[in-house]
């Protein structure tokens, strides 16, 4: 009966697609099937009774021998994956299931090994590993991590970059509580509310702060949740991105804009930005103070802005603007009136410059400022009017007036001392000051003063001053 059983066993083994062999503890082959022989390009006669290892990759031999030594009566099966050189010299990956057979004393008597080609599986694993490595590198460069969560919302898996961003153990798994402890205390309510809403079907796209090793970082989190027919969570996948640098740039820009706005406000300037091909004008924040319109009321249409210009100033404005747009002037400057929402006109000084042109020199974008010069214009007008009045008075003073010839004769008849006193009175000196200057008593000066005004028919200090100016008698202190 034994030969029949042996033949049946051999037939079954030969029908297998795996490479099967049996060998002693020292590696001597007792049996090999045809698949094994075909795989390594050997005949049974070349293998049975021989201890043959060249089929295994030399770098894997120490590992193979160490793993085989792990077989015990309590652990009789050891699975080994290693590289081998097949018949054509190609390197293939094999998985060998090794089962040890022990006697009653626990001594290993022989080992049966069943191997199958896992080269394609290894290639897939290697491809996945390389893909994972590329993903990890890309996530590390972009500082974007990812995570996945099943219906158990208490734990979720995560990538290395997620663990790094949140300073979590790099085990690939974390708990909701451990992750949530990293969220900034001031943002925890916001994050918790957003997540509860997401579990009810709301989109989850949130920016919040975390505290990692004492530093505050900004995170943008996005997640997609899938639910079954009853509305229960099936799984959730998402990303977390460190946007601290972007947030810092935003804060710096905001601070810069605030400084610019303060500077413009301090200088009384209003900013404008003209996108010429689109015929769009973007206004600064202080147009309401200048013209009483809100940004919504003004809009961005170029024609709406041009319609604010006083018709009497429009042609001159267009000429100066065209000259600059055509590159004839280095900058644009114009003084013109704009209509206030209340109906009156506001004088402005406009300055601007084209900052971007096409290769053919056609303008693309122009920026500039407006300054309210209404008060300056009013003061200039009032100053001009006052100057005209002064000129009229001067001409009037130079013209002969009734009685002037007679007073000139009286001036010529005055003594030197009387001429001095008239000049000092006109200069605003008091009687005491005149007496001190001429070594006269106050009473004497008063007498001279009274007599002179009666003789010259002068009745006030202003008339004395006018008389002194007309006859070159004015004495400066």
UniProtKB/TrEMBL annotation:
UniProt keywords, alphabetically: Kinase, Phosphoprotein, Transferase
Protein name from the UniProt record: histidine kinase
Residue ranges occupied by any HTH luxR-type domain in the UniProt entry: 407-472
Highest taxon of source: Bacteria
UniProt keyword Iron-sulfur, yes or no: no
Native organism: Methylomonas rosea
Alphabetical list of NCBIfam families matching this protein: sensory_box
EC assignment: 2.7.13.3
